[in-house]
């Protein structure tokens, strides 16, 4: 809406400019005042009429970045129609004035409006950036792959247009190849046509092409097969525009056509790609400005004083154990209903993870069971904010305070989540957010530690950097450290993603909302309960829980057979083979976590998930449950 208002204003001002310039040209810059006063009502009418006609003609609804000749033709038509209306108003107004109407002025104004308003759209068409666009010129790179388009017909030309308007595809056409003798040697949209197709390998070599797009959807299968053989011969990867008939077939296909529906999908735009390219150009690939910027943003997301970026969430939790002084024989209380890192971090320091069962509703550590697990060897309580829902932190912090224990938050799944209006991460002594590609935001691999304790922050920086202290030299190591540094490329992606975090979380919340609405109509399946202490959910995955008597694993198999991906979450840590073997855990030890582990399934979930995709997943799920 803002954009439309802006364009209405600009069009109105350009119409005024066209009138003024028209007056200047018409009267050779003489007596302009005089005519300006006389023409003022007409000019004002023009400033209203022209944008109004544009509005009615749908000019403001067009995406000028992708405009075609047809759009420009409609624009010209709207200018002409506008001028006719302005003329009618002018003639209607004029009898009230003594002056004769300078009629040619209306024609001059129309021509100038065509130039001004059309020119504005031409400029937008050329330069406007959209999210996802990469400014290849700015990053001083050529799109990586040069392609030959086989077929200089309408499909091929359409493909070329697509490549030209979508530079983020990373493809640049270097030529067409076509059997039509008449086209050979000509240029289409500036791209040369070579031929015949049989010479494809030689043409590709000459033009330095490293991929082929076969754009002759109407060709017989045999012809396509022959072209593919030529690509094989030239060792060139190829892709084929599907024949029209296949689209028609797809329309009747059952929902299983969404076999390629991903389980999760990182939201990567041209901005992240550009950011990585810029790091590469800077030649500063580790411990640089991007890491520092990323840490600044991360600290502010958690309302924390300090943030230290590391290479993954597991490393981050490990550093918390080291900083807390956890050692051989010490105990770390955590949730068994979590990813294995939540407990492994204690094992790295030869401490013992001590599990506490979960609250069956929030699926987080049950504070009421913590005290019975505390011994004199307990050093740390490590609550996990599972699936992006904060654990009940106030009683946990209170218990820790009473027993002199350190609280470390495993917030790897919960960046941006809020507990009673407070951001998670640094509610205790320190916490970790992780950024694997299935997370709410990603850095590829990566994590950030947040804390309000300056000493811990310094320690984290030293530990991640082989134990060097800030003022240590190149090969001076003050303590046993690790190489847990994040690279500048990862951090650069993180900077862009964390600046987009609110949008990313909002998109995920909207998808979650669609899921819960649809699931409400399906019997036997429940979405995750959002407990009252959760004032902001940071949706990591979308877990659902099945009613007693429904075998989650059968549902999972049946969904997979239908091409709908899904994942069981979690086998409780104490039941992992390695933990059973080492600590003798068995089924029945933590009944709530085990029940959750048996009945929870995560459905495909990502911020850019479309409503139709949610619908297909839910329809399939409903059918599977009916079949059972
Ligand atoms: C709860 C939890 N803790 C720790 C981690 C470990 O993070 P990373 O995979 O970055 O090592 C994860 C990762 O998925 C997690 O979900």
Your description of this structure?
Helix 5 links the parallel strand 1 and strand 2 (171-177). This protein is an alpha/beta fold and 628 residues long. The longest helix is centred in the first third of the chain and has 25 residues, at 2-26. It has a 7-stranded mixed β-sheet with strand order 7-15-14-11-10-8-9, sandwiched between helices. Helix 1 packs antiparallel against helix 2 and helix 9 packs antiparallel against helix 15. The chain contains 20 helices and 20 strands. It has helices at 2-26, 32-56, 69-93, 103-127, 154-165, 200-207, 221-233, 244-252, 270-282, 289-301, 313-323, 341-348, 393-403, 454-464, 488-499, 501-519, 552-561, 577-583, 591-599, 611-627; strands spanning 145-150, 171-177, 187-188, 191-194, 211-214, 238-240, 306-310, 331-335, 352-356, 378-382, 406-410, 418-419, 422-423, 430-434, 447-451, 525-527, 534-536, 542-546, 567-568, 600-603. The structure holds pyridoxal-5'-phosphate. Pyridoxal-5'-phosphate (PLP) binds at residues 312-314, 338-339, 341-342, 384, 410, 412-413, 434, 436, 447.
What characteristics describe this protein?
45% helix; 628 residues; alpha/beta; 20 helices; binds pyridoxal-5'-phosphate; seven-stranded mixed β-sheet; six-stranded mixed β-sheet
Outline the secondary-structure elements.
Blueprint (H helix, E strand, L loop, with lengths): L1 H25 L5 H25 L12 H25 L9 H25 L17 E6 L3 H12 L5 E7 L9 E2 L2 E4 L5 H8 L3 E4 L6 H13 L4 E3 L3 H9 L17 H13 L6 H13 L4 E5 L2 H11 L7 E5 L5 H8 L3 E5 L21 E5 L10 H11 L2 E5 L7 E2 L2 E2 L6 E5 L12 E5 L2 H11 L23 H12 L1 H19 L5 E3 L6 E3 L5 E5 L5 H10 L5 E2 L8 H7 L7 H9 E4 L7 H17 L1
Parallel strand pairs: 1-2, 1-5, 2-4, 5-6, 8-9, 8-10, 10-11, 11-14
Antiparallel strand pairs: 3-4, 7-15, 12-13, 12-17, 14-15, 16-18, 18-20, 19-20
Helix pairs in contact: 1-2, 1-4, 2-3, 3-4, 9-15, 10-15, 11-12, 16-20
The structure holds pyridoxal-5'-phosphate.
Pyridoxal-5'-phosphate binds next to helix 11 and helix 12.
């Amino acid at each position: 809406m803002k954009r439309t208002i802006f364009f209405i204003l600009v069009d109105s001002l350009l119409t005024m400019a066209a009138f003024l310039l028209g007056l200047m040209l018409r009267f050779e810059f003489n007596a302009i005042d005089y005519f300006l006063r006389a023409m003022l009502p007409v000019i004002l009418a023009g400033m209203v009429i022209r944008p109004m006609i544009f509005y009615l003609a749908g000019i403001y609804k067009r995406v000028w970045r992708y405009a075609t000749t047809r759009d420009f033709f409609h624009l010209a038509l709207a200018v002409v129609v506008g001028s006719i209306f302005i003329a009618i108003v002018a003639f209607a107004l004029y009898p009230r004035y003594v002056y004769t109407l300078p009629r040619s002025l209306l024609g001059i104004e129309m021509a100038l409006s065509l130039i001004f308003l059309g020119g504005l759209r031409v400029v937008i068409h050329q330069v406007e950036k959209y999210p996802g666009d990469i400014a290849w010129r700015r990053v001083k790179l050529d799109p990586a792959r040069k392609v030959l388009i086989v077929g200089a017909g309408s499909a091929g030309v359409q493909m070329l247009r697509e490549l030209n308007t979508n530079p983020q595809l990373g493809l640049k056409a270097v030529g067409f190849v076509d059997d039509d003798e008449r086209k050979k040697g000509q240029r289409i949209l500036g791209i040369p046509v070579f031929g015949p197709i049989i010479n494809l390998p030689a043409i590709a070599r000459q033009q330095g092409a490293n991929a082929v797009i076969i754009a002759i959807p109407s060709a017989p299968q045999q012809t396509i097969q022959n072209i593919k053989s030529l690509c094989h011969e030239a060792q060139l990867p190829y892709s084929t525009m599907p024949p029209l008939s296949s689209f028609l077939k797809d329309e009747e296909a059952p929902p299983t056509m969404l076999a390629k529906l991903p389980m999760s999908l990182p939201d990567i735009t041209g901005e992240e790609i550009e950011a990585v390219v810029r790091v590469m150009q800077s030649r500063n690939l580790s411990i640089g400005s991007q890491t520092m910027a990323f840490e600044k943003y991360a600290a502010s997301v958690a309302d924390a004083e300090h943030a230290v970026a590391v290479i993954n969430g597991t490393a981050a939790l490990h550093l918390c154990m080291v900083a807390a002084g956890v050692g051989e024989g010490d105990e770390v209380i955590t949730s068994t209903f979590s990813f294995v890192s939540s407990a492994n971090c204690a094992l790295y320091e030869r401490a013992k993870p001590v599990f506490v069962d979960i609250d069956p509703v929030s699926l987080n550590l049950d504070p009421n069971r913590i005290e019975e697990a505390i011994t004199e060897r307990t050093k740390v309580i490590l609550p996990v904010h599972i699936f992006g829902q904060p654990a009940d932190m106030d009683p946990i912090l209170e218990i820790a305070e009473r027993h002199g224990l350190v609280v470390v938050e495993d917030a790897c799944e919960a960046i941006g989540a809020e507990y009673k209006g407070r951001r998670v991460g640094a509610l205790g002594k320190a916490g970790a957010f992780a950024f694997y590609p299935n997370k709410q935001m990603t850095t590829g691999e990566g994590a950030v530690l947040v804390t309000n304790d300056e000493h811990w922050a310094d320690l984290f920086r030293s530990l991640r950097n082989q134990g060097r202290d800030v003022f240590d030299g190149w090969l001076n190591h003050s303590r046993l450290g690790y190489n847990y540094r994040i690279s500048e490329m990862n951090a650069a992606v993180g900077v862009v993603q964390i600046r987009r975090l609110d949008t990313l979380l909002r998109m995920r919340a909207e998808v979650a909302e669609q899921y819960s609405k649809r699931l409400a109509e399906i019997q036997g399946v429940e979405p995750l309960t959002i407990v009252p202490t959760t004032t902001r959910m940071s949706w990591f995955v979308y877990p659902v829980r099945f009613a007693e008597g429904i075998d989650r694993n059968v549902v999972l198999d049946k969904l997979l057979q239908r091409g709908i991906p899904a994942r069981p979450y979690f086998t409780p840590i104490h039941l992992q083979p390695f933990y059973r073997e080492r600590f003798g855990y068995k089924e029945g030890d933590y009944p709530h976590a085990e029940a959750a582990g048996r009945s929870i399934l995560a459905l495909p979930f990502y911020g850019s998930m479309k409503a139709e995709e949610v619908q297909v997943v839910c329809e399939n799920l409903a059918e599977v449950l009916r079949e059972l």
